[in-house]
Amino acid sequence: MLKLDIFLSALANGLMTGAVYALIALGLTLVYGVLHIINFAHGAMLTAAMFAVFICHAWLGIDPYLAVFILTPLFFGLGYAIQRLVISPASHGDDSNILLVTLGLSIIIENGLLMGFRSDTRSIDVPYGFSVIEIGNLFLSTPKVIAFVAAFVVAGLLGLLLVRTDTGKAIRAVAKERTGAALSGIDVEHIYAVTFGIGAACLAIAACLLMPTFLVNPRAGNAFVLVAFTIVVLGGMGSIGGALIGGLIIGVVESLSGLYFGESLGQIGIFLIFILVLLFRPTGLFGAKA
Prior knowledge:
Elements: H1 4-35, H2 42-58, H3 64-91, H4 95-117, E1 132-135, E2 138-141, H5 142-164, H6 166-176, H7 178-183, H8 188-210, H9 220-235, H10 240-261, H11 268-280
Antiparallel strand pairs: 1-2
């Protein structure tokens, strides 16, 4: 029988990890909600963002948490350009072509990183990397606590963007009915690119939060994006709130599975949930029927 403090520590760790998972899933579910496609380049773009954080720290001496102010607008612009100049022209208006284009982008990005950084695993050394915050009998990793708080802040800001701003209202209009939005004077192609850019910006923020405690290699993003897909399915495709809650649930499940079944089997609970959701509630917790 495990002691209560060990269980609570695993629970807290799962919640903090799940918040970052949710941040990765936010970009994925937002792109799906507007463009109605799965972005297969999501994992490769996360890897690229993690390497960008590594470069900022190792080569330029910029702290990962400060790099967020550089990389977030940079990756927004990169995402906007990829959608506007590559994905949209190459797809010719066919959603199935978009899937192939994003898959091709994933392969190009991953192999470009392999060429530039080889297959070596990289990490960064920050003074607070192993610092902890003590709460009673719990010892919480400081970088994970920061990531937990930051993920909620970003999710809140994204929610405000969608509800309070003209751009957010245009994004919701295009997600609901692209033809009607176009007839209302909304530049649909611009909104597509903005949405893709926001998804890329979320990845940049997630990378800055991950790097103080995680390692990176040219395939690192693939593991995270598999979890993100599960979160999107669990929360409901296109649901921002569902992605946040789903991320927390998945983080807790992964942590408790690792506690009870061993670290090597920590993700078994995630994929059991994935299968069960597909079987019994394919719309997810907060998804709507098509």
